[in-house]
Amino acid sequence: MPAKIRLQRRGKKGQPFYHIVIADGRAPRDGKFIEKIGFYNPLTKPAEIEINFESALNWLRKGAQPTDTVKALLAYKGVMYKNHLLKGVQKGAFTAEEAEVRFQNWLSEKETRIRSKKNEHQLSVKDATKAALDHEKKVNETKAQALAKKYAKEQKAAEAGAEAKAEAEAVTEVVAEAEVVAEAAEVIETASEEVAEAEVVAEEAPVEDTPAEEEQTPEEPKKEEPTA
Hints:
The protein is an alpha+beta fold. The protein has helices at 53-61, 68-77, 79-91, 96-204; strands at 4-10, 17-23, 35-41, 48-51, 65-66. It has a five-stranded mixed β-sheet with strand order 4-3-2-1-5.
């Protein structure tokens, strides 16, 4: 059974990291391998791919079969295209020099596309960061406005409460004064009633006749007794 070029998982749970290895087709996925020719880290942006170009090309020419994922990685790095060109040279379709020129042109275009994608990614990250900052700024402004409205509302309520308290105290004072006046009026009314009753009693009481001075009757002159 031919050798396989496949991924061998490493890394913690939820943080995968892969080795690109040459292994016997009958070996378990994460078992023994013949040679490690690179690694693949899908967690970075863009993903990090490192491949020993010459070793991978030699194994392909020996008939090693890459898995679908590894085939895509090899194609991304140009290994598959270089193998295709070498097959064309063997068939006499073009010379080795022409194959190398074609590969270099492809590699140059590939690097240009990669740089363009990296720039686009950086711009998108920058735009996303700016958008996030703008959003955070708007959220903070909205919170500040809400707090200002809340503070103004509380202040207005406090002022209204103070005014209501002052009015209540004023009403209390007026009521107290009114009660004092009412009590004074009641006292005056009671006194007036008592005076009126006294006058009525005085008018209705009988008048006692004072005895007239007895007229003094003149004393009768004493009779003189005869002398012997």
